[in-house]
Amino acid sequence: MLLHVKEVLNADELREARAILKRATWGDGRVTAGVQSAQAKNNEQLPQDSAEARALQQIVLGGLNRHAVFFSAALPKRVFPPLFNRYGGDANAFGSHVDNAVRFIPGGQGGRVRTDLSCTLFLTDPDAYDGGELVVEDTFGAPRIKLPAGDMVLYPGTSVHRVEPVTRGARLASFFWIESMVRSDEARRLLFEMDSHLMRLRTSVGETDPAVIGLTGAYHDLLRMWADV
Ligand code: NI
Description:
229 residues; 5-stranded antiparallel sheet; globular; binds nickel (II) ion
């Protein structure tokens, strides 16, 4: 499932994030790449343990934590500490690659994240740069994704994807991975669709309608059956 998650960050958070990004020192993006993807990767990245990266992570995680659609779609079990990248100038593209299946959380935090879902949260307004589309190859085509600042795309960790060259300006984004409580993309999608329709039903017929209560129970029975917590 590929999903556009709107307004993960609000205008104040974006302003704060950009101020931090402005004073940050960028490094080579290849430090977190696997062997294959290092061949294709040409961008810059914030060092994971820098004060700026840590402050930005808190902003992104705060946005995710209050976002009901994100929770319903991802059913997150573990979130990799968000990373931040910049495409522009001579370091402006990331060719076709796949993300590693397991990421090790850096520093003292320890632990591993299975990359069921990949996320890109856009931090630059789309009219401030040319190119820079995230292209996700799937059986139904290869959508070219370029979203408003503050919006995020969730896509399967299994996909081949790339970032097209940025030919004007710079594209700043946060990217990270999620291990979901529900490993199967198919099961997760079914739960998301059921939950989305249930939310609409609650609005149209009310919380206390017996059918709404019964269907809510069926949703939780499926989640209980499939969730690994
Ligand atoms: Ni990738």
